[in-house]
Design goal:
The protein has about 425 residues and is mostly helical. It has a domain of about 290 residues. Helix 2 runs antiparallel to helix 17 and helix 10 packs parallel to helix 12. The N terminus and C terminus are likely disordered.
Length: about 425
Amino acid sequence: MAEKHTTGEPAALATVVRVATPGETRGLERVVLILGLPALLLFLGVLLPMHIFSGGGEAGAPPVVDFAVFWMAGRMALAGDAPLSYDWTTFAAAQSATFTQDFAPGGLPWLNPPSFPLLLAPLATLSYPWAWLVWSVFSVALAVVAARAVLPRWSAGVAFLIAPGSIFSLLLGQNGLVTASLLGLALALMDKRPIAAGVFLGLLSYKPQFGLLFPILLAATGRWRVFFAAAATVITLVLVSGLAFGVGSWAAFLGAIGPIAGLMEAGAAVIVEFQSVRAILVGQGVPGSMASAAHAGIALASAALAVLLWKAAGPDRDEAAAAATLAALFLATPYSLPYDTTILALACVFLARAGLRDGALPGELAFGFGACLLTALPLWLDTHAAGAWAAAILLALAVRRGLAHRIPLAGNRI
């Protein structure tokens, strides 16, 4: 028989057989704190600083990882050479001179728009390891704020930060945590504070591949205040960065889009860290045009599901729609890497919020945990598939959660 609850959820949802009541789900939350918090504190307080200052690079220098690209771009922007950062030969020469090792053009290239150095330039006034540490502290602080905006419990921040994608991001000095945090803040505030949500979306324009679906989503659901606030923020960033670094920086970036696309096209077949649907297909020998068409079809289908869930979401019950949006964003971009799976970790936090309130649906905890484990595979295996499959699982869980109050699943244990 269906288990009865008195938590105030819709009557149809109360008929769903669950593997965990809200109280039992809170017990799992305590496990996350007891086991995850000490491990997280050890990583953030000891292991990460040791990694940054360890001298793991050549001649005892700090390891040269992805953050070196951000730091170098910030230095060039401060020196008035922002346009030259998009010339990969010049950029590689500057890296080689600074880090006393050889960099091939396009090996660690600068790919982001000129608005990103507005944040990076202040960091470039510090030495490389100290700038990396400050960037890490900023990323962690923003992640905690975003996780608590989604689910106001400390366990949310712990779960978000111990996710594999978050660890990848911090070890590389990448922007995965910042990207996911801006997305989380935007989705958490979408209906409560639409102007603030739009600003957070506009700030995300430094990584435009993760904003592809938002114009469709916002227009289709009539969230015009968010739409126009995001557009105004993007325009402001373009103008400010143009004034700060010169209009030529934007001309250089636009001129580099073709080579960037070419790099991604070539890399999809050989860079196994790419986590997109297109990369999976190209890696299996599917011609690029067919892989792109299949990728586009999956992206549009995912976007349609997210739109439907937003339209169906009731007051204060938008977790499924938000989780579906994050999964759809990951599936939509052809350029995603393991550190970008942070956005999938935040999708899990949205689903956890619904589980803590209403209880978990059959199989929800097992499949959600499995999706998180999938995102750890690139640490040990050369695989394109982990991130895309994890996103597909979470999208399915979000759709099921969003429709649960309309389509009872009684008797369907997994």
